[in-house]
């Protein structure tokens, strides 16, 4: 008699079972099974979820977001500005050429509303400003000759001299004298500034859709000479009063004119190109851009100088200007019907409706699956049986015990 065959190790048997399971999973085919569950509450939940998903796609995705359109953001834009008006200060009358910087008429410009003037500055030696760190002194020993402070007004000579007013002393510097603090005179230009008019000419172009439009009405009757902007009656007359812009930004004009600030004029072009071109209109909004609540950096000012000759020597007038800077910002987006995004969003909507089935299956399996009746109904495993009569000991007319056998041990009558 042959010797008994040795059994394979337990680990080898487990590996074989795992390999057979993986191979079976690779070749098996799964098909959905439809089961009608007679439960009114579950049916209401299922239809409610489907209705909510349908409303979301119809109302929000297609109507609000217009996801059936191909879109383009950030139009190509051109901005030209022009300021008109005159004002006066304590000493002179000011026109546009003097209070608008820079004069080119671009999308960013400043309107001067207050100045501090230091006239007749010449190259020489004078007392340093007391605002400069370590500028005060008691004697010449406190001042280092040749020292250059990046925040100062010149090169120190090593002498300690009396200040412009009072009994204090500061180190002497070589530079443009007198320094700004010593002889500056303040002038306010904002008396008539609220009535300055600003023309903002803007044109945009969406290259993807070959669509262009401007914010000025195409008329030949001198329309722009006697109109000012109104949101309803004169939308295509982009002539704004400076006082109106500041008011719409929620600022006090007098306070802003003294400290300076930055106001943004935002032009938004949101265009639905499925409609006529007359429905694509600019929308204007105004807001302050600089941080007015931060004392260290609030306000807006800059310096410039005017040079001239006096008795053959170079002289200049230093001007520290406070003003209202206008930043014209243009943005927008355009959309037009396209088949590709429409198909993609429709497919997404139809797929998302299946979330209702997933939710109801989870409710059934988790909360309503008494005695696991539903799971036995939902998950059936079919085993492919050999042909009849193929195995030994089986009659030609006797079916195999594995022929289309169901693993539902509890039976189908329990649901």
Structural write-up:
With 415 residues, the chain is of the alpha+beta class. It has nine helices and 16 strands. Strand 10 and strand 11 (211-214) form a beta hairpin. The longest helix is centred in the first third of the chain and has 25 residues, at 40-64. The radius of gyration is 42 Å and the shape is elongated.
What distinguishing features does this structure have?
415 residues, alpha+beta, 9 helices
SSE layout:
Layout: H1 10-27, H2 40-64, E1 69-73, E2 76-84, E3 87-88, E4 93-94, H3 96-99, E5 100-101, E6 108-127, E7 154-162, E8 169-177, H4 180-183, E9 185-188, E10 197-206, E11 211-214, E12 239-241, H5 242-248, H6 253-259, E13 261-272, E14 283-288, E15 301-310, E16 313-337, H7 339-352, H8 355-367, H9 373-378
Parallel strand pairs: 13-16
Antiparallel strand pairs: 1-16, 2-10, 3-4, 5-6, 6-8, 6-9, 6-16, 7-8, 10-11, 10-12, 13-14, 15-16
Helix pairs in contact: 2-8
Short summary:
With 415 residues, this protein is an alpha+beta fold. The chain has nine helices and 16 strands.
Structural class by helix and strand composition: alpha+beta
What is the arithmetic mean of pLDDT?
A: 84
Can you count the beta strands?
16
Order of helices and strands: HHEEEEHEEEEHEEEEHHEEEEHHH
CA-atom Rg in angstroms? 42 Å
Regions with pLDDT < 50 over 5+ consecutive residues? 393-415
Question: Given the structure, what is the number of helices?
Answer: 9
């Amino acid at each position: 008699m042959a010797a008994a065959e040795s059994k394979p190790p337990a680990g080898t048997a487990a590996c074989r079972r795992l390999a057979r399971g993986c191979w079976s999973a690779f070749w098996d085919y799964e098909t959905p099974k439809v089961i009608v569950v007679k439960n009114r509450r579950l049916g209401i939940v299922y239809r409610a979820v489907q209705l909510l998903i349908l409303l979301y796609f119809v109302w929000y995705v297609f109507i609000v977001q217009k996801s059936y359109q191909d879109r383009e953001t950030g139009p190509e834009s051109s901005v030209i500005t022009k300021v008109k008006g005159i004002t006066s200060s304590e000493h002179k009358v000011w026109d546009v050429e003097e209070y608008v910087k820079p004069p080119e008429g671009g999308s960013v410009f400043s309107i001067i509303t207050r100045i501090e003037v230091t006239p007749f500055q010449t190259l020489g030696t004078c007392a340093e400003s007391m605002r400069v760190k370590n500028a005060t002194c008691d004697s010449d020993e406190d001042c280092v000759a040749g020292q250059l402070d990046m925040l100062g007004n010149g090169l120190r000579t090593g002498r300690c001299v009396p200040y412009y007013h009072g009994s204090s002393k500061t180190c002497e510097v070589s530079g443009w004298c007198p320094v700004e603090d010593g002889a500056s005179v303040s002038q306010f230009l904002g008396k008539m500034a609220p009535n300055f008019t600003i023309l903002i000419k803007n044109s945009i172009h969406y290259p993807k859709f070959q669509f262009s439009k401007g914010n000025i009405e195409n008329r030949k009757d001198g329309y722009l000479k006697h109109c000012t902007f109104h949101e309803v009656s004169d939308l295509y007359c982009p002539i704004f009063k400076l006082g109106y812009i500041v008011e719409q930004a929620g600022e006090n004009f007098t306070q802003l004119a003294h400290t300076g600030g930055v106001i943004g004029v935002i032009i938004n072009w949101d265009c639905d190109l499925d409609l006529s071109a007359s429905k694509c209109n600019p929308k204007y909004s105004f807001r302050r851009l600089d941080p007015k609540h931060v004392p260290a950096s609030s306000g807006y000012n800059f310096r410039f100088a005017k040079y001239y000759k006096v008795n053959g020597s170079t002289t200049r007038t230093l001007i520290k200007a406070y003003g209202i800077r206008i930043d014209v910002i243009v943005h927008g987006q355009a959309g037009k019907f396209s088949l590709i995004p429409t198909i993609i969003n429709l497919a997404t909507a139809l797929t998302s409706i299946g979330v209702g089935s997933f939710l109801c299956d989870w409710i059934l399996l988790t909360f309503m699956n008494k005695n696991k009746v539903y799971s036995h109904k939902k998950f059936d495993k079919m085993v492919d049986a050999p042909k009849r009569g193929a195995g030994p000991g089986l009659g030609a007319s006797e079916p195999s015990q594995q022929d289309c056998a169901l693993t539902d041990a509890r039976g189908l009558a329990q649901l």
